[in-house]
Every structure is written in structure tokens, then in C-alpha cells.
Amino acid sequence: MSLDLLKQNITNNCKLSAKELDHFSASFYSKSIAKKEYLLQQGEICKFEGYVTKGCFRVFTIDQQGKEHVLYFAVKDWWITDIDSFTNQNTSFLSIQALEDSKVLLINHTDKERVYKEIPAVEKLFRIMTQKTLVSLQRRMIRNLSETADERYLNFINTYPEIAQKLTNLQLASYLGISHEVFK
Asked: What span, in angstroms and rounded, lies between the C-alpha atoms of 39 and 19?
């Protein structure tokens, strides 16, 4: 079932033959992550790019003052990684933690590079996904610079209602860059 979800996600973004799709999908391995368990901790090297098939994750960093900053949340049918650490194989500034019992399909750096060579269209797939991610981050930056806390909150719950219902006020406040007292 989870491979079917992955295959559908791939075909929504890129055209691969059935043989290429099966070959690419076979490069992933499944991992279950319990609630509060880490898929990646700040300071480790990210050795995977992941596709969420169940659950919810938060991708975050903790600054030198101990304050948490959430970069994004990932739910079913979303991709997840620390792209800097994964691409450059350097230590991660991010942690990835399951907010509920979750499942992911993971591909390691070596297998991804191998598949790029074997199936050139896969590079196009990841280019498209990277562009979509950059657009999303750009829009988020603009909202953070130009909208009030209330506007950012309403935008988030209207855009991502399925994610919003899974979060605590503290987690949402950390993502929005606001004090959790706003929710009281």
C-alpha cells in the first residue's frame, strides 16, 4: 500500500515507465517511527530522503538560547529530509521527530545518486519537488515578514487543516514564530 502511495506521488510529478517506477520505488525501504522518536537529530548527518506514508513529523532546530524553531511539518504524502545535510553530507542543523506513530519510506544518498544515473527522469522529479519547496518557503518568508501573527495563524489553519488538528499550541506557535500565549 505505501509503495502505491509513493508511486502515485511520483507519477503526479513525473512520467516514468512502469519498469522505471518499480525500479525507483524498490530503492526505498520502510521504517516505522514511534511518537516522540527521532528520525534525525541535530548534529547527525542526514543519510536519507523520506516520503511519509503515515503520521506526522516536525522538522525543527533549537537555537543557542534553547528556543525551538519549526521549519515545517510533514504528513502523509509529503517528503521529508534535511536537504542541506543530505545533499552535502554535513552535520544537520535540524531534527526530525514523529508527533504521532508514523511510517516513512526512505532512500539513502548512494541509492538516490545511483537512480539519477539509471533513470534520468528521476532527477527531473526531484528538481520539480525542490522548486515547489522553494516556492513554499518563499511564500512563508513573505508571510512572516508582512502578515500579523493572527493572519499567519489563520492562513496556516485554512491551508493545512489536517496538520493543524495534530499540533499543540506550542508546536504551532514555534512554526509561526509567535508566542504560544496568543492562543490562550
From this structure: 30
Give the whole-angstrom CA distance, residue 130 versus residue 114.
19
Please name the residues in contact with 38: beta carbons below 8 A apart, sequence gap of 6 or more: 95, 96, 97, 98
Q: Amino acid letter at 95?
A: S
Query: Which helix H or strand E contains 73, and what residues bound it?
Result: strand 68-75
What is the structure's pLDDT at 184?
52
Interval 82-98: pLDDT, tens: 999 999 999 999 999 99
Q: Could you tell me the pTM of the whole model?
A: 0.89
Strands 48-54 and 68-75: unpaired
- Spatial neighbors of 99 by CB under 8 A, at least 6 apart, are 35, 36, 55, 56, 57, 58, 73, 166, 167, 171
- Please give the distance of CA 39 from its chain centroid, rounded to a whole number: 11
* Strand ranges of the sheet holding 95-98, from the earlier edge strand across to the other edge: 38-40, 95-98, 56-62, 68-75
Of all helices (H) and strands (E), which one includes residue 172?
helix 169-176
